[in-house]
Specification:
Layout: H1 3-24, E1 31-32, E2 46-58, E3 65-71, E4 74-80, H2 82-90, E5 102-112, E6 115-120, E7 126-128
Parallel strand pairs: 1-2, 4-6
Antiparallel strand pairs: 2-3, 2-5, 3-4, 5-6, 5-7
Length: about 130
């Protein structure tokens, strides 16, 4: 095989790879899981869950919210820090109104005090489901 043929093969596979990445990049997202499937092996991984907000607590010192989200497999705390809370409320939405609402959350798995929790990435990572 000569250099010209090798170059054409390399160029063709590169172009196909780049086009494939562009086409499929919109379909890549976090794993959608049930709460019971989240474990310590997923620390620092981004996941997605669906559930109902069972309880909402607000920090007294900062505008941080703690949501207890449940599905039919378990419960997990979701932390919404000040910046994400302010961004969410920019759209005239109040986090306190999420109580008993079905939501979809995209967040990062973390551990605090021996309990797993999700930290909301940004305001767009919380979606109310109908």
């Amino acid at each position: 095989m000569n250099d010209n043929a090798m170059f054409r093969i390399a160029l063709t596979t590169t172009v196909i790879g780049i086009v494939g990445m562009i086409l499929f990049s919109g379909q890549i997202g976090p794993k959608e899981l049930h709460i019971k499937d989240i474990n310590r092996g997923m620390l620092d991984e981004e996941v997605s869950i669906n559930g109902v907000v069972n309880n909402i607590k607000e920090s007294t010192s900062t505008q941080t919210y703690y949501l207890e989200v449940v599905d039919n497999t378990g419960k997990i705390d979701v932390i919404i820090f000040n910046k994400s809370a302010k961004d969410y409320e920019k759209y005239n939405l109040n986090i306190k109104n999420l109580l008993n609402m079905r939501i979809k959350i995209k967040g990062t798995v973390t551990e605090y005090d021996g309990h797993l929790e999700l930290i909301l990435k940004d305001a767009k990572s919380l979606q109310v489901l109908m």
